[in-house]
Amino acid sequence: MRHPSSDARQINPRFLTIARDPRIVPGLHHACDEWCDYCPLTARCLLFQCTNEFRRQHRRPASASPVRTAAEALEFARDFAAVDEAPTAGAAATPVERRSIADDDSLAGIALEYSRRSQEFARSATMAARRPARREPPPDEALLRFRSRIYFKTTRALVGYRLTAAGMAQWCADARTCAGQTLACIDRSRAALTQFSEGDERHALTALLDAIARGIEARFPDVGAFRSRWKITAA
User: Fold this and answer.
1) Taking the model in full, what pTM does it have?
2) Are residues 44 and 76 in the same domain?
3) Are residues 16 and 124 in the same domain?
4) Are 225 and 117 in a shared domain?
5) Fewer Cβ atoms within 10 Å of its own Cβ: the N or the C terminal residue of the chain?
């Protein structure tokens, strides 16, 4: 974790305190499904805690937007960047293995197929008798929320992968972040699918998710390895 000394007075001191909390998982917010209301790990998320602190400092209720002006957004982004640590810091700027554009197009096509079919499935399939856990969204709502997110995050990760491989290293961090977010959304979608009744389409959708995950992990192996080492609990 970076803890600037000479510039410390220019950084939100509460953000520094939060960042030093041993419960915080570095980089957690770089690979999340962006649905904080149903996340059991917000107490360990640097972005969530800093966002709440910024809101508190400006005397805004929990339901209000943390920022209201472009100047505030810039202030928050500057202060947060000063204490943030990317999950893949130190990784090579260029992906380990270059893949053809056709391979990328094929993976994007799989993600698009999943998006289309999962929407139809969520609206028509029968759910299993068991109910979702208290801190989980209804399974149909989860599928519908994540279906387009998986497609767009996959596509953005692939574009960044291709640009990075072409020598534009500035796209590396964005591509890896999108890759991690794709995997997080896939995890939540897999869990949602298990709450529907057994059937061929449920298994087909799970297979599509597995194919997308394999494609992402093949292009961004450091992201997959980082996620597998978390072993995070909500405690």
Assistant:
1) 0.78
2) yes
3) no
4) yes
5) C
Give tens-digit pLDDT for 36-58.
888 888 999 999 999 999 999 99
Residue 143 is which amino acid? L
Pair of tokens at residue 215: 């494609």
Residues 74 and 108 in one domain: no
pLDDT in tens, 133-170: 556 788 999 999 999 999 999 999 999 999 988 889 88
Does residue 4 sit within a domain? no
Residue 88 lies in a domain: no
> Integer distance in angstroms from the first to the last C-alpha of the chain?
21
- CA distance linking residue 142 with residue 92, whole number of Å: 34
In a domain, 119, yes or no: yes
Q: Which residues of 66-78 are buried (b: 16+ CB within 10 A; e: fewer)?
A: bbeeeeeeeebee
DSSP string, 102-139: HHHHHHHHHHHHHHHHHHHHHHHPPBPSSPPPTTS--H
What residues make up the domain containing 42? 9-83
